[in-house]
Every structure is written in C-alpha cells, then in structure tokens.
C-alpha cells in the first residue's frame, strides 16, 4: 500500500539512484578496438584514448616536483617536522637562542642527505625506464601497410604487434596469429615468475582456420575483457565478430609483458593492456615498508624524551619566573625588554623562556638517530649480502633483502611457519615405487641408485667449486655448445629489459630443462614389471599381426599397458628435441576436413566406425583449448559450440589395425629421433609430471610428441601411436586431479585417463560389483598407498574410464555450453569435470619421493634449541607429512603425538576438549609424575609470556612448551579456526613442541599465522616457495621466500629471499642476533648521549637565573651530535659483534636473548637516562670547582666541559663495544681530531663573533694549561667508574641469575634426553654456554 501512494518525483529520484548504482557494474569490463580503424580520426574519436600508453615511469619525481614532493614525504616523519618547527622558532627574536641561520644547519643537513639519497635512487630508476622505453618492436602501420619499428613507449592499446623468436613482449598481447602450424606460441616466463619451463599459448579460436598470414586490415572484431588486474593466472573476455558471433577468451590466449617468445618464428597479436596496466607492472610493488618491533619500542621512548624535555623546560620557565619575581619593581640591568621596549612581566618572561628552552634543549630529541638507523640498516643488509655462507652456487643466487627496515626483527622471532614441499624438501620428485593391478613393484635397484646420489652430488660440488661453473644437469653432453649459443641469444634479449639481475638468474636457470636432473630422470626399472611390459607388448604385436581384437588381451596385462599410457599422456608436458632444447618436436599425422556442429561430430561415431578399428593416422582430431593452469580459474578447456574444429577423414578407405601399429607414421620424420642426436627433453610444469613421464620412459613407454589435438607415444614392439586429444581437464586444488579425454588409436574408444591424489581418486572408483578381481585390486592398492605414505612418499592414483558414444555426446553437449558461457564459466566447467570423473576403473598407484634438502634436520634442531616454535603447514596427505616430519626431526620418536581428525565441528570441539584435559592431567596436575615436577622447576626459562593487554586478558598467564606433537588435517583445521573453537585450538597447539597441519589450503595457512600472531602477541616468520604460500608470507611479521623450482611468486611477496632452507639458521641465529643487538645498543646509546649533553646546559641554568643562556658555544651545541660524536657509533652499530658467528651457531640458546628483548628493556632506557644525568653532573661540577674563583670567561670554562663530555661519551662507547677493529679506533681518533681541528680553526678566526663574549684563541690557551689535561683524565674516569664497575664485576645476584638459567636447563635436558648420543652433545653445549656467560660482561 505504501508503494502505491509514493510520490512520482520520489519514484523518479529513486530510479535515478538505482541507475547510478548500476553504472559501476557496467564499467567492470574493457572494450578494445583496433587502432588502425582510427588512424585518421581525432584523438577524441579513438575509443582507446582513455587507456594507459606503454611508457613506463617508475620514478617518483620530476625536475619541478622533486623539491616539494621530497620535502612533503620527509615531513611525514614527525621528527623532521619537530626540528623544522624548532629551527623556525629560533627566527622569533623574543625566544631565539642561537643565530637563526646556524640553527637551520642541522635540519638542512639531515634533509639534504635524505634528499640526495632519494634523488640518486630515482635517477637509477629513470635510467632503467629510459632503457626499457626505447626498446624496439614491430607495430603495424596502416599508412605504410606493413609493420614498422617503434619504441616500446609508442605502443598503444589496440595496436597490432608482430613478435619474433627470442623477443621480449612489450605489452600484454592477445594472440591472433602464429607461424606455428598448430597455431601455438611457446613462451618462457623466467623474468616474470622464475619458472624456466615452456608454456603453451594458443591463437584465439576464431583465427584457427586462417589459410594465409593474418592481415590486420581485415580484422573487424571488438574485444570485451576484464579490467586490468594483477592476477597472472586469469584472463576472461570474449571477442565479438562483425557477424555478431562471440568467442570466449582465456589466459591461454594472452601473452604477458616481460615474457620471451620461444619456439615460434613469428606471432601477431593485438595489445590489450599497456604500460602500468599490464599484469607484470601491477605485480611489481617493490620493497614493502614494515615497522619493526624495536622501532615501535623506540618510538615510545622518544615520546618519553619529549615528556622529559617539556618537564625540563617547564621547570626552567618556573624558575625564571620566580627569579624575575624576586626583583619586584627593580628590574635587573641585564633584563631583556619586549619588542615594544616595555618591561615584561614575570609570567610573560616565563612563557617566552619556555619556548627558548625548547630550542636550547632540542638536542634531547635525537635528530640524527633516525638517519643513523637507516644508514646502519643499509650497511647491515650489505654485509648480509656479502656473506658467502648464504650464497647458493647451484642456482647462483644470494640472499635478497626486500624490506630494508626490519633486519632487527630477524633476531626476535618466536614462531616459524613453514611450507613442506620445496621448502623443507628439494621439490625434485623421484619415482620410487608403484603398484599396478594390485601387484606392488618395489624398485629396489632404483632405491640403491638414489642412495648413491648424495655422495655423487658432493663430488660434483667439489668439482664445481674448482671450475667455477655451474654443475651440468643435462646428460646430453654432445649438444652443450648448441645450448650455449642458443642461450646467448636469450641472455641478450633478457638484458634488454633493464633488469640485469633477473636476466642473469633466468639465463643460468634456463641452461638446463626444469626437473631434469639425472637423479630425476635416470630411473632403473623393476625387472619383474619390465618383463610384464615386454610380455604385454609382444602379445599385442602378435595380435596385431593376426588381426585379433584387443579385448582378448588378459586383464592384468591390459591394466599394465593402460597404466603406462596414462603416465605418458595424462599431463601437460611439452617435448623438445635434444639438439635444440627450446625447439618443439613436430609430428603431424594426416588431417581431416573440419565440421562445425556437434551433430557432424556425433556422426563420426557410428557403430561401424567404432568397431572397425580405424587407423590412428585416420583418426579425427578435436583441437582443444588446453589449460595448463594449476588454479581453479579456466581449469578446463575444450572446443566452443560454434567454433569447434574437428579434423575428419578425407575420402580414404579405412585402414586396418596393422596401420595403427606402424613403426613409422606416414608424415613422421625419423631424423628427429636419431639416437646420435640424444634423447628427447621434457618441459614439465611440475616435478610430479616430469617424474611420471620419466618413469614411463624407463619402461620404454615414451612421450615423443605433443600437439594441441594429439599426443604421440612410443611403445615397445608397437612403434609410435597417436592418441587424439579431445579434452584436457586441468588440475586444480579443489578436485586434486587432472584428466585427459582421448580417442584410443587401437580400439577407437573414447577413453578418460585420470591421475590425482588418492583421497580424490579412491572415492570415484566404480563400485566393484562385477567380480572379486576389482575388489582385490582396490583393497591391495589402498594397503600399498598406506605403506607408501608411511615411507614418506607422495602418492598418486591412476584410473581410467571408457565412454560410449552416447555418454560422450551427452557430456560434450553440456561441456560446450559451459565453455561458451560468459557468466559463471569456471563454476560450470568445474561441474562438467565432476560429471565426467565418476565410476573410474583403478589401474594402480605411484609413490614419488620428495627428498629433504641438505641440512634441514640440523637446521630445525638448531632453531628449536634456540627457543623457536616450528609449525609446518602443508597440503600433503597426513601420513606422508608425518613421516617427512619425523625425517626432518620436526617430530621426535620419543614425543607423544596428538592427532586431531574430525568429521564435524562438534567432533572437533570434543577432540580439543579431551586434548586439553589430557595435557592438564598428565603434564600439569600429576603429583606422582617426576617429569612434570622437573618440567615446572627446571624448564621455567623457556616459558613464554604473551604481552598482557585488555584485549588478550585470557592469554596473560605464562605457558610452557611440552614434549608433545600435534597433527591436524585440513578438514579439522577448518573447524578449529572457527571463532568458537580458535581459543581452544590455540591452547592445545601452543602447549605442543611441534605442530603439523596437513591438507592445508593457502587461506588456512594465512589464518593460522594470523591467529597465532594476533592472539599470542608473538613475532612470527613464514617461509615458503610457491604461490600457495604467498598469503602466509604476507601475513607474518617477517616473510621469507625460497627461490626454488616453483617460480618466484613467494620471493616477490617476501621480505627476505633465501636459496635454501638451511640458510635460515645463520640468517636468524647469527645475522638476526647481531642486527638486533647492534641496533638496540645504538638506540640506547643515542638516548644516553643526547640526554647527557643536554643535562650540562640544564645544570648551568641554576647559575644564570634560568635565563636560557649556555656556557657552550652555539657552534659546539649545534654540531656536537651531528659531527663530533656521530661516526664512532655508526661504526659500532654496523660492525660490533657481542658473540662470534661460530659461537652463535654452536650455542643456539643465545638466540633467546633477542626473543625476550633482553637488549632493550624499558628499565634499560631509564637506567641509561639516570646514568646520563649522573655523568653530566660529574662533567659539569668538576670543571666548575676547578675553575672556581678564577678569572676565566664563560667560553674558557664551557669549552673544557664540551671537551670532557666528548671524551666521556667516546670512552662510554668503548666500554659498550664488544669487538674492536681498526675502524673503531680510526673513527674515535677521527672524531677527536675533527673536534680539535674545528675548535682551533674556529677560535682562531672568530675574534668578535658574539660580543661581549669572545671565543677567540680559547682552545689554544686551554692546550697550554696543565689543569685542562688533568681534567681530561680525572673527569671521564669519575663519570664512567660506576658503569665500568657494574659492567666488569657484575652484581652478585645478577651474575648468579644468568648462570643459574643454563644450569637448570642443563639438568632438565639431561633428564629428558636419556640416550647418550643426544644428551652428551647437548650437555657439552650447555657447559660451553655456562662458561661463556660466566666470562661475559653483564649488561645494564
């Protein structure tokens, strides 16, 4: 009723609002037209005019904007604003304390140094931009009717570009034509994501049937696609032809900027995204800014310095007001009048003096601290990069520091979250065992071969270190020179991008095929299985000769040959010829005339054709849009409804089976497989695929060619067979499997081959109601899968399914509809795959070993001794993950393991409740258990105290880490991360020494890290090597990427990048400890130094009526912190080492020092401030009493105080310095010499600078006075004697406490580790620690 009574104006207004709301939805796509249609049009008429051009500009500034923009950025730092305000305040005559120009000098110096640094960095970016923008490419010109050379910066969206082999793509280009006969284009993405394997890209379907070269003038389509985004694995859109027909576009049609064309002579495409809108540029975010924990603590103390400053100024102002008030109406002769010439009241004098004292005491806020910290951090990063122990010779990669401002956080980590595959393991998948048709083949000879590789690798490293070259990973040595020549062109083209570091890495990695080391590909076959393969092949050869049907082949032998066919073709492996590693092997069988509709396609599968056993060379080929994506988007591909091209029989008589088994296909050039040229090379997208293909080749079932519509394999006795590839259903993390639909060349049947995780495949197996054989196969295979998992092997199941023509036609119709859908395409394709992958016949399973990286068990043991809690988050199945965890010493055989597997949230809650009760009953409340008593009495040093705060009141009590391990699967983890259960899960997990999360998704990994970081208020580090680890790496306080075989996605998202996991030990225990210790001590020293110097002026106020006067010359006052005392602390902050690297690695327990923030406690700040005020009292009053009743002037008394303060500060730094080098001595000598040089020159050249005071010849007279030298000895000794006494002798209680900690830990360690091989080394480590701490100077 209310709607009927609405005012028409209101209804119209609401309609307008709805239309406005709909507008953003309409702009979610981009429309791209060809530019050649608008060559003569004005700029406003070109529909592509609003899109970004291809000019790259990564610089921040221009000539005009540099000064204002840089100052604006520097003023984002509050300290700079504060000091500029103080300098400007000094220009006010009533409150000024120094010469205005002189007061500006420190601020101008600090701002100038930062500006010059920013300018140099920006200039380097400008040079790189210029180099890239002026690279050449071929762009079609309508006026000249040919492709002309233009700079990259001149390319626009809608331009047609011709690409040549080994050329780098200037923009994101939609592929419209390729010189490849299969309309393919191969690209190498090493500069984009670090992956060296080739990736296939396809021409847009509607341009498949071009009989001639692509002519841009005949192009009349309009492209609708998604707006620019940074997702490298997704591209959606469609092309609208003049006829109104639409063809879908996929990521397989898009060539990304920065990739290199391989294997294709020429290709033509239209620019979709240019410049900063390309996916590569949108992913190039550069180093990220993070605030370290130490910086946050420092900011609190800077705030306290401000409070102290205000209190001192307020005290001085009140004192000055009282002092003026005591004169009453009689004004002192030295009173300062107001600007109007009138007398100031005591209150106004106090207010003005308050502002004056802010100027005088400004040094209390360390202006140079922030710049010094930046300089020290840059130097620390430089020395970390120079550490050759963190250099990996095999990949020629160093540690990379991508976040320059959190180096000290490396010394304060408490939790480490690690991926498993590729991080703890090598990600080199080696075929170990398999089971086929319920029979297990152990491959013992292959196991013995693998046992020899570790020794061989060490010998290879020795040879490599002598030769200085990378180890050669390819077994084909006769063509090394050819590879070098080919790669030199690649390196040259890479160098043109301007990213020399990435080009160097890409060049090195591309010298060998990915996943093709001898360990991975040289597989020793099992003799029993090899005999069965040969027997099967010989029987098939016999049946071929006698024209017998294949159905007569025994079931066990048929399963064996199908098993190896599945291993060979169910993948996306690209075959390369050996003499040219990046040249694809081509083998084309006879093609057939195309048809355009499903009806024509179905007509092919008549009963007579299906039973006639036609030749593979006469089989049809359905060109498919294969997806090599390993993600969920566009995981499936097949022909579109309107543009499906099928290759039918030309009018030829049908051939018999003998042609299917022909040793050489009609159009095959046998020269490519000449043994003299070496074996074929496989370009795999994942190590799993490579391992299975190499395993099949070991049994003489070789993949010899791959085209978009067919896969060619070579079988023993049978020659080469061509399987018509109808569809490829790509792998994704949800289905956990991939499938290929092929037309079998022997039986003409439509066959589906599927491989995937056992958890996914076993649920899809056809119910075994046909006989006992299938039941036995499934049962035995499951038992063998459990054994493989127990051995730490990665398991995959292999299955197949035969489709009738009716089943295939029905599925195809739905699949084509899903593929041509614009909205919800991914979901429809996903459902289509689920519909096909049912009722499978189990063929067998494989066990693949992913070997641990060198040094992983030792690294984990060392990190655990350092007090770090290590959690492993992996996507592997539980049994495999548990066994790898035992192998890498994450789990201890003596530990109790809590396993949480639940099918519902209620069951998960019950499990967590029971686990908490069990932990409390066994470890916390048992009065009879000796270990529990010992735990509380002796393990106290390893208690973890979360920060208490109002938001985390439930976690303020200390908790201890028990000798328990927790294993939880992905489904249970999803329940445990629910808001109602996360606290219970965290209570259980934080009590365990190790946590292993299996079957975890990328989202779950990041949620676990965020939960621990936010709830426990601890420092977290996440380390991984793949794209699935990116979210976890970004959530953690410190993210570490491993530059492994899964590309560079993790590295690009990380703060630090390592070549190997074992380097994490030295990065944290050594460099992390040093960085934290150096910066913590430097910050405390800065606060002390500034407070000590300012306090000298404060004490003088008691003798000058709190007038704001200073006995120190303003030149010394301004430049004391900026110049005279700056250099030694920079050297100490960069080079000081409280403990040697060898000791830190031998005694990881010293890392606890940083975890507990022992070097920077709040009380240390206040102790340093108290010490600073004491030293200032000594440095002020000893010269005061020494020169009492003398006739020296103000500066003759103030200059010795300045000199004594400098000596005291430098000697104080010497006491705090642990490692002395020649640079420390040189810096102290330089600072002293600089002070005296400036003082002598200044005092000799300034006779009448500040009348009536005269600094002329002051230092010269002092150097002739013996009293001055006596003061230089007595005063620093008296000022530093208390600190020196405490530091060297130590308070008895403090020393006893420091020694009792390791003694208690020693007793507890000996109790827990009964076996001698564990306890003795651990005991010796603790004894070393006790001795070292006994000798170590205690720190106040």
Automatic annotation (TrEMBL):
Its EC number is 7.6.2.1. This is Phospholipid-transporting ATPase. One of its GO terms (cellular component) is endoplasmic reticulum membrane. ATP binds at residues 419-421, 689, 731, 755, 794, 874-876, 999, 1005, 1028-1029. It is found in: Endoplasmic reticulum membrane; Membrane. InterPro entries: ATPase_P-typ_cyto_dom_N, ATPase_P-typ_P_site, ATPase_P-typ_TM_dom_sf, ATPase_P-typ_transduc_dom_A_sf, HAD-like_sf, HAD_sf, P-type_ATPase_IV, P-type_ATPase_N. Keywords: ATP-binding, Endoplasmic reticulum, Magnesium, Membrane, Metal-binding, Nucleotide-binding, Translocase, Transmembrane, Transmembrane helix. It catalyses: ATP + H2O + phospholipidSide 1 = ADP + phosphate + phospholipidSide 2; a beta-D-glucosyl-(1<->1')-N-acylsphing-4-enine(out) + ATP + H2O = a beta-D-glucosyl-(1<->1')-N-acylsphing-4-enine(in) + ADP + phosphate + H(+). The active site is at residue 419. Residues 1051-1286 form the P-type ATPase C-terminal domain. Residues 14-25 have a biased composition (Basic residues). Mg(2+) binds at residues 419, 421, 1025, 1029. One of its GO terms (biological process) is phospholipid translocation. Its main location: endoplasmic reticulum. The chain crosses the membrane at residues 78-96, 102-120, 300-327, 347-371, 1083-1103, 1115-1135, 1165-1188, 1194-1213, 1225-1245, 1267-1291. Residues 1-30, 457-506, 609-661 are annotated as: Disordered. It is an enzyme of class 7 (translocase). It comes from Sander lucioperca. Residues 609-645 have a biased composition (Low complexity). Its cofactor is Mg(2+). Belongs to the cation transport ATPase (P-type) (TC 3.A.3) family. Type IV subfamily. It comes from the Eukaryota. Residues 647-658 have a biased composition (Basic and acidic residues). Residues 477-491 have a biased composition (Polar residues). The gene is atp10a. Residues 44-101 form the P-type ATPase N-terminal domain. The keyword Magnesium applies. PANTHER family: PHOSPHOLIPID-TRANSPORTING ATPASE VA, PROBABLE PHOSPHOLIPID-TRANSPORTING ATPASE.
